[in-house]
Structure formats: C-alpha cells, structure tokens
Amino acid sequence: VTVRSMTSECHEESAGCFSKLFFCWAQPLMKKGAKKLLNKESCVYFLPQDLNTKTLSEKFTSDPQNQPNNSQFEYQRLENKATKSRTVLKSLHRNFGRTYYLLGLLKFGSDMLGFAGPILLNYLVKYVESNEPTIHGCYYAGGLFLSSFIGALLSTHFDYQVNKVSLRIKTSLITAVFNKSMLAKPVSLAQFSTGEITNFMSTDVNRIVNFCPSFHQFWSLPIQVVITLVLLYQQVGVRLQAGLVLALLMILFNRYLAKKMGEYNKDMMGHKDDRVKLMTEILLGIRVVKFNAWENLLSDRINSIRAKELKSLKGLKYFDAGCVYLWATTPVLITLLTFSIYSITGHQLTAAKVCCVGMLCRLDYLKTKKWRKSYILNYLKKIFQNNRAKKKVLRIENGTFSWGFPPPAEDMNGLHQVQGQDQLLRDLDITIKEGELVGVVGTVGAGKSSLLSAISARMERLDGSIHCGCHDDGIAIVMQESWLQHATIRDNILWGSEYDAAFYLQVVQCCALKEDFAVLPSGDSTEVGENGVTLSGGQKARVVILISSVYLQRKKLYLLDDPLAAVDQHVAGHIFHECIDGLLGGTTRILCTHHTNPLCIASHSPDIILRRHSTWTNHQPMLKRLVHDRRLPPIHAEHLPCSNHRRPWNDHHHVLRVALGCCPSAATCCVLLLAYRFVLLAENKPIKTEPPITHNVMWYLMVYGIIAASNSIFTLIRAFTFAYGGIRAATRMHVKLLASIMKAPISFFDATPLGRIINRFSSDLYTIDDFLPFMLNIFLAQITAVLGTIIITCYGLPWFAVLLLPLAVCYYYIQYYYRLTSRELKRLSSISLSPIYAHFNESLMGVSTIRPFNRSSSFINHNMELVDRNQRCNYSTLVAQKWLGVRLQMMGVVMVTGVAVTAIVQHEVQFISPGMVGLALSYALSVTGGLSGVITSFTETEKHMVAVERQSYYINNERGISTRLSSPWPLDGAIEFKEVCLRYRPNLPLALDGVSFQIAGGEKVGIVGRTGGGKSSLFLVLFGLVPTTGGAVIIDGVNIRKISTDQLRGEMAIIPQDPFLFSGSLRANLDPTGAVCADERLWWALESCGLRGVAEQMGGLDSNMGERGQRLSAGQRQLLCLARALLRKVKIVCLDEATANVDLESDRLIQETILTHFKRCTVLTIAHRIDSVMRSDRVIVMDNGHVIEIGEPSQLLNQPMSFFAQLANQ
C-alpha cells in the first residue's frame, strides 16, 4: 500500500494572492457542502505538499546520526554506554521550529495593531469633546479601519498557519507512535500496556496539538503587558501602581492555581491510563469475562479507577474555575481601583480617559488557558527513544536471553527470594542446518515459545551471540495465539501479495480449508471479524498457516509455535503431511509442539529437547520413547467440517436526550451567563464626563463598585456551575457507557472492532471530560457578549441600527452556508478517524507476528494512508473555518468603521455625548473577534458533541433482564439439551442442528469431533452467550432462559480454549472475586495443577503476571485457569481444549486432578486428544452440528466402524 502524491491536486497551491488572502479558493468546497455533495472522503481537498503524510513521517522519524544497517540482522554484545535519546520536543523543534517560530511575526503585528484601537479611540472621543476639524475625525476613523482590517487579516492567517503546523505535528506524532510500535524492541515495547500506547496516540497527541495555538502567548504576553502599562501611565500616571500591584498579586495566585492544576492533571492522566489499560484487557478477554460472570466485578474495578480519575478531574475543574473567575474579575477590579485613586487624588475623569483605560484594563489577551501539558512531552518521549533494532545474522552461541522482567521480590508468606532474574534462557548452543525440520518439545513452561521469541528478536540478549541469515527476507512465524486482521479470509491469507490462483488453491487444499470455504456465505471473501472471532480455533490456526505458506513461500526459516494444538488429530496429520513436511519441505522449520507423533517422521533431523531449567540437548532416542514410535496416516480434506459465524448487533441512538440528561445544569448556566453579561455591560454606563449636579464622581464610582461586585458573584457562580455540570455529565456518561458495554451480547463484540470501543473510553470520554464543557462555556459566553455589544452600540449610537440590518442578513447567510459544509466535514472527520484507532489496536495485537514476517513497512504505509484520509478531512475543515473567519472579521471591520463614521456624522449634525461614543466604540472594537468566536465555538461544540453521539449509540440500547432464582440452584448439575438449534447469523447454516442429549448430575462426559463440528458452540449455548434458534437447555429442571445470566454463569466454571489472564498479581488472577481468603487454599490449587514451583520462582502470590499474563506460557495459563476453577464451588465444570497447550505428562496430571477434585461435579470436556476423554463416563461425538454418537468410550472403541474408533486410531 502506498500513499499517493496529492500535491498537484491541492487548490491552495494554485490560487492567487487575493484568493489566498481571503480564502476565495475554498469557495468550491463550500458550494459542495451547501449542495450536500460532501458525502465521501474523496470529495474533500487533497493535502498540500507541506502536509503530505509520507513526507512528514519520513522527515520526523529520520535520524541522521543513527541510520540502521539494512545489510544484515545481527545482535551486538551489550556495552555499558549511554544511548543518546531524542525526545519528542527536540524532534518537534528540529522539524517544525523554524516555520512555527516565524509565525510569531504575524502574531506580533496583530498584537501591535490591537493597541491601535484604544489609542485611536482616545483621539476620536477627544475629537467629539472638542471643536477639532472634521478631517481629523476622518483620519481617526480611517486609522481604525486600517488597523482593524490589517489586524484581522494577520490574525486570521496566523491562526490558519498555526493550525496547519498543528496538523503537521499531529500527523508526525501519530505516525511516529505507530512506527515505533512496529519497529521498537519488544522488550522496550513491553514497558507500556496496550492502553497506554493507545492513549499516546489519541489523548496525549491531541493535547500536544491543542497546545500549539497557545505557545506564542508566552512571549507575547510580557510584551503586551509592558505596552499596556506604558499606555496606562500616559493616561493616569503613577496612579496605575495600585492596579498594577493588584494584577501582580492575582498573577501570583493564579500561578499557584496553575501549579495545582498541573498536579491534578498529571494524576488524572495516570488514572486514565490505568482505566484504559484495564478496559482494553477486559475487551480482549470479553468471552472469559462473560463465561465467568465477572461483568459486575470488573465494572466495579473500572469504576473505582474512574472514581480516582474523577477526583483529580474535580480538583482540576474547580481550580480551573478559580482561574476563570480571577481572570474575569481582575480587569473590573483593576479598573475600579484605578478610577477611584485617580479621582481621590483630585484628577477629573473624562470620557476619553475612561474609555481608553477601560479597554486597556480588560486584559483580553490574558484570558487564555494556561499550559498544563508539558509533562506529556516527557511522558510520550519514553516510547520515542531511538532504540530501533539493527539488521543482523542469526546463530546461537552460549546465548542467554531475558524477557526483561524485574527480579522476583520477597513473598509475603516468607518464600525465599530467587537469585538473579527469572525466566531466562541460559547457555544456548544451537546449530540448525538449512532444510532441517527441528522439533522442540518439553514440559509446560520449559521455554519452547521463548526460544522462538529469542530467534525473532522479541527477547533481550544478555550474553553470547545470535546470528541469522534469514532476516533479510523476514522470518515466517506462526504464533501460539492466532492473530488475524478484521478483513476477509483471502486478505488475511494474501496479506497484500499478488493472487496466484493455482498456488492459492493448492495451499487451501493442503491446509484442509476447502470444505470450510464451500459453506461460507461468501467463500474466502467472508470477513472473519475482530481478531478472527467468527472462526473456530482450528480454522484460525489453519488460516495463519496459510499466511506463512502462501505469502512467505520463499522464506528460508519457519518458526511454528504449536500450530497443531487447536486442531484434532485427523486435521493435524493432514496439515503436517501436506503442508509442514510437504509444501514447506526443503525449508528450515522449527516446530514447537506437544504433538510428538509428527516428529517421528522427521527423517534426518535433530530434535531439540528442552528441559525444565532451559538447558538444551539433542536427543532423538528420548523423543522416540516419548511417542512410542507412532505414525500419522495421510488424510483427505473432503471430510472436514465447516466454520461458524456470529450474529450482528443492531443499535439506535438518541443523542439529545442523553446529553440533556447528563448535564441538567446547562439551562441554569445559560441564565447565569445572560445575567452576568448584562451586568458586565452596565459597568461602563454610569461613568460620564459631565455628571448631574446632584451626584459627584464618587457616587458613580460607588454604583460602579456595586455592579462590579454583582459581576464578580455571577462570574463565580458561572464558573463553578459549569465545572459541577461538566463533572456530573462526565460521571453519568461513563457509568451508562460501561454498563451498556458490559451488558452487550457477545455478537456485538464479534461485529465491532476493538479499537472503536477503546476510542469511546479514551478519546471520546476525554472530550466529554474536558473539551465539551469548556467549549460550551465559551460559546454561551461569546453569544451573550455579542448580543450585549450590539445592544450597547445601538443604545449609544441609534443610527448604527441602519447599518446593522444588512449586516445581520449577511451574517445569517454566511453562517448558514458554512454550517452546511461544516456538518458534513465533521461527519467525514469522525468516520475517517475510527479506522486509525481500529488499525492501531489490531496492529498492536499482532506486532509479534508482523515483525518477523518483515511486514512492518506494509502496516506503516497503511497507517499513513488512513492518517492521510483523516487529515484531508481535518485540513478541509480548517480551510472552511478560515473561510468563515475572514468574512466575519471583515464584518467586524465594517461595524467598527460604521460606528466611527456614525459618531463623526452625528457629531457634525447634532450634539452627541462623548461618553456614549466611547462606550459604543469600545464595545464595537471587540465585536471583530466576537462574531468569529461565536461561530467557531459553536462549530467546535457541535464537533465535540459527536463524542456524546457516539457514546449514546451504545448507551440507549435496551438489554434483556431475566429473573434470579431465590432457592439454591443447581443441586445436582443434570443437563438436558432438547432439539437445540443455533444459527449465528440469518444467512449462515445451522451451527447446531437438533442437538439432543441428557447428562446426569455428577457424570463425566467427553465431547470430541473434528474441527468446526460444533463442540464449542455447545458451551456457548450452555452459558447463554448466544441465543438459540430453537429448542431448550434444561439444568436441574429449569430452562436457562428463565434465569439471569449472572446466576447461570456464576454457578458454572469453564477453562476456555484461549486462556486469558489480567494484569495484576497471581493472587488476583487466581481469586478475582476475593472469595478465597486463605493463602493455603491458593497454594493448594497451584500445587494441584503443578504450578507451585513456577509461582515460587516468580515471587509468590503477589508477583506481577504482566499484561495479559505474558510472564506465563500458554500452557501455564491454561493450568492457572484450571487452578482458578478448583477454587470455585460449582456443580458444572466445562473444559474447552484445556490441555491443548500442555505436554502429555501435564495432561495426565490434569485428568487426575479433575477426577479427584471434581468427583461430585458434572464435567464436560472438549478435547482433540482421545486420551483426555478415555476416563469419561460417556463420550459425545459431534460432526457438522449433529450428535452422531453417544456412549461409553470402551464400547465405542470396540465398534471398529464407529466414528470415535476412527478418531482414536488416527
């Protein structure tokens, strides 16, 4: 996938000077939006050269001082040298600093012209007070026009260029985080959870980008303050000292508030990372969660983290409200104090001085958000360290490798501390010749998968050397946990390579998928869902084998991590004969497996036996003793079963009801804002040049003080009401969203990409927490400000209303024209954003597969294409905003000029109060930015409301609620299936077709059959995870449809086919509910499953399991799930391929444990190994969704023609 060059098709680069100045080149885009033709991403503008995604990514991530050597892939011995790191801030400075800093010239010019308004206002009011020639008034009016006109253009283009730099930074950071995730060392990447990396790409990047428009305020503020003081000194002399002291005190206090806000913000982001991390793990293991009825338990954990996050958010918002209050009331207090001292000292207040000082004291340029985001740069730079692996050559000599976990600590029960670092591969001396088939066998946790991880550069080398000449072309790797993309089966197989029909069909046949493709609704064009959830475990494993066989058919080295564990003996033999030892013959293959039969036919190949302490021996005779010299016959694929699919989840949403329900104080805030604004407008009204005879200036200052106090009170109420309303809305939205997601059926998770759901809990929730209340506050404040300004201006200069009418018509037309386009662009931006997060999460899940295949560049290019599509929409949105902004700025210029001209005309025709002229002009000068601010804040509020809309899509879905039985249930564990039928989707064949059988309480039943026969579907129906099409399931005389899913699943235990653990301690994973208090019980469960030694080596019950239990092998995770089941007091226990990833000896141990500890329980065991069900009371044989045989294992074996006997003989 390549990113096409879009430079020649960008309208901006071909536009003329006048068109660029007033954004006339954006008119075709606005016309499209007005005609509702912006219905797809291709309708928006292409990116200019300086925003090209591929160019920015290559420039940002390039490091001239550290270019990787692509000629070979070799490991260098570790040396004690400090690695020079390149932080994000330095990279941003190096790539965008010059352009960004030069934009300060536009900012400086705009700020300087902003001071021309108060100066010219002073002269114009003096002109009205005196008898100066009319030409002087025209000069002042012309000066106001030129200063406001040029200032408006400079301000608009400064904002436009800064936002373009923001888009460039956003592109660079998103692609950099993705690139580092694909290219960084796995040991370094393991320092961050999936949730943290997702936050890097979403929340943290957005916060850094949002800071860009505020940076220039830091150097601009001191300059503006100095100029303001100089102008104030010219007006009131040394009397400004009192106001200056008050301003300094307020600044110092505000600095304290900003510091506290930074602390709260840092804590909040830490809790947010923890919450997103846990939510990601829950979604990845949602089947395990629902099987064990942990929804309420995990919801409580999420809510407890959210409570800590909300506590920090509450402190942040209330301190932020304090800042808003201070900066809103400080100008009023400074003005009141300055006027009072000026009058007390015997000076006369004139209209010119009052208006000029009033404008200078407003300090609008200081009312900006403080920088609270500097820590994000330090937080994000951790993943941006330049630690990319270099190309090397592979062989292992005296190698020692580590996963980089910390040494185990002293256990709380007094266990001895293990010396050194755990989970090491030590003293590896391995030589593998070209073309060999090498088998790697050993007990659970011996390090078989770690060997493949060391070869594929996923582990940290501590000593020795390793070279591999195959890394130039990449390594073909089949992981123990199958990873597939959310795409069609064919796309997953080809992985971007060219389609060779003849070879494709050959490989489909050799991997026994021909029958499966035949019954799928779209054949191999059927979508497999998120991580292949719509396929069975065996089908996913075979598709992964196809990927390594079809796309990487010319690879020299194949790493196969137990690919036969998920399929039955029949399919395993076929795949080994036709694919591993057939199609891949002649290549070097390293096969980790517990299926020892295939290794017997690996002629002339040394078989590596891996023992407990990770030491290696080449021992062919021992292997033969393990497998008893059994052979696998060739099998044809015509008799293999088909796959199953799931049902989609339909949904509806009602955004407005959710938004109003979560923030009931919005109406109150509107009322307070209106009251506050009109009190603020009244502040300048009582002060006149010629006060009535009955009152002196001090009387008016007292009235002004009362109004200022009222303004202060309303401001305080407004600030804290919005803070409270925002916190309450954020709290209720998260509670409702989490409850809805936890109650969603399993079909919803099959049809919805994981990245989309994570985005709702990360980026969208952060928008509701922070940006939406802030922008809504700004919008309501600005609209009341504009309305008040127009009223005051018309009151001071009634003739201005004649000009106001055509301006109002023009304003309505422009904003309506813009909103039609803006709405469509916001929709396209939202649509194009979700695929970025979905692809990012999907790629993170499969990075251990992507890197060895050398497919990182393909995924990086696809990510750049997705970012490019989204940035095209964002760029077009920016252009539309500035098209509107420059026109509204020009309307403001017309208003300012109109007020000045009206004042001159009225002064010449009739008497006009200089105070009224000054009042009208002082407010008219602020309307230039006010008009633009209303539309901008409204569209931004509308944009952020999309987050509420997306969350309400899930919140408003009704979930079925069943009753809970009051009496103890079940008592015996008897199970009956009555003509059960299951169809995952309406257009798919039945996965279960009329299944009927009875199981007595306490009976041990094995369930066998070929891959895709419907075995796992029985468990899905039994646990109520999928609704049946027909029939009924009865447990102890009660139809499971009549009881709640919590009670149903809580009374049964399951060991799933894909074992899943959560981040946290061993204790928390053994006993998630905390029902078992005694450590002796936990150690007993571990010892019963053969995991006590592993637990002691890791550091005891409180040792950390790592993300998704990565410190344990797949087999050890299955044993831990068995130990967890032992601790539960249930009547029904289900084992779904619970021994697929363990060796034969561990399998026998598990069977003994089941017979001993589950003696009085009903046990259902799905297994591909016939030995695993031989001790069962009865065996159920499934094929194509039917029960074809039921009976005792011995009786079925004595019938040579039985299906069970045929499976056993294979």
Give a description of the structure.
Among the domains are: 9-67 and 84-215 and 799-911, no CATH class; 388-403 and 421-483 and 497-529 and 537-616, Rossmann fold (3-Layer(aba) Sandwich); 975-1061 and 1112-1209, Rossmann fold (3-Layer(aba) Sandwich), CATH 3.40.50. It is elongated, with a radius of gyration of 36 Å. The two termini are 44 Å apart. Strand 6 (557-561), helix 20 and strand 7 (588-592) form a beta-alpha-beta unit. It is 57% helix and 8% strand. With 1210 residues, the chain is of the alpha/beta class. It is built from 40 helices and 19 strands. Helix 2 packs across helix 28 (800-845) and helix 12 packs antiparallel against helix 25 (697-743).
Using DSSP, what is the number of strands?
19
State the strand order across the main sheet: 5-6-7-3-8-9
The poorly predicted ranges are 1-8, 64-85, 365-393, 406-422, 602-607, 619-694
Largest sheet: 6 strands, mixed
Total count of helical runs of at least 4 residues: 40
- What Rg do the Cα atoms give? 36 Å
Outline: elongated
> Which structural class best describes the helix and strand composition?
alpha/beta
Share of helix among residues? 55-70%
The mean pLDDT is: 75
Distance between the termini: 44 Å
Strand content: 5-15%
